[in-house]
Amino acid sequence: MAKFIRPRLDDIQEHLGPTLHRLGLRPIVRRSYESMDVLLVPVKGNVCWSPVEIIFDDKSVSRLPEASWKHAHLNEFVYSRRVLGDTGWASWKYHGKTRHDIEGEGAAMYEWLSTFIDQRELIPDARTPNCLENSRCGDAYLTLARDFSDVAIHRLEELDQGQAVEVLTFKDDLGRQITVPMRAASPHAPVYVDDEKIAIFPQDDMSALQGVVLRLKNDAGLQYGLR
Known about the structure:
single chain; five-stranded antiparallel β-sheet; 5 helices; 30% helix; 39% strand
């Protein structure tokens, strides 16, 4: 693997190095199915990575002894940054992957690559203060904030199987404490009312969470004789 990709890594260090250094990035190689992928990851002390990857066809595809720019393209992972009310937290939402052909040759190609990488906003990782690790927790916040004004976010200091647990809390219309802990790797999340679990919803289904909201609203309506 090293012999196959090393010449292209040398190209990247020589021609893209100044841009990567300024952005706090370094290239690493990951082997994928039929390709060698160059990822642009944070240097020590940085917490942001590039959404751009340089993808070289593997020799099983190109039939060449080393990776070639003529058999390369870019993958861009598209995200949007969402500010979550006045909580002080933000969430990055993933929208999909876009393929880009590399333009130009020689010096013009390296200039195009540098500009392309430089113009993409870096994505923070889970070490970034007040940035949610779990984007579905951001979805849940936006769902709940439509009906409740005091939704707060905090991250538990203790970890669950190596991952942070991010928690949404608020008071419902009856003054009860609602707690929604969410872990990125878990497919489901529970909802607690005054420490009693009342529901579990799929983290990727905000309509299910909206159903829990309606249940809380119905409880308040019944309590105050509105239903």
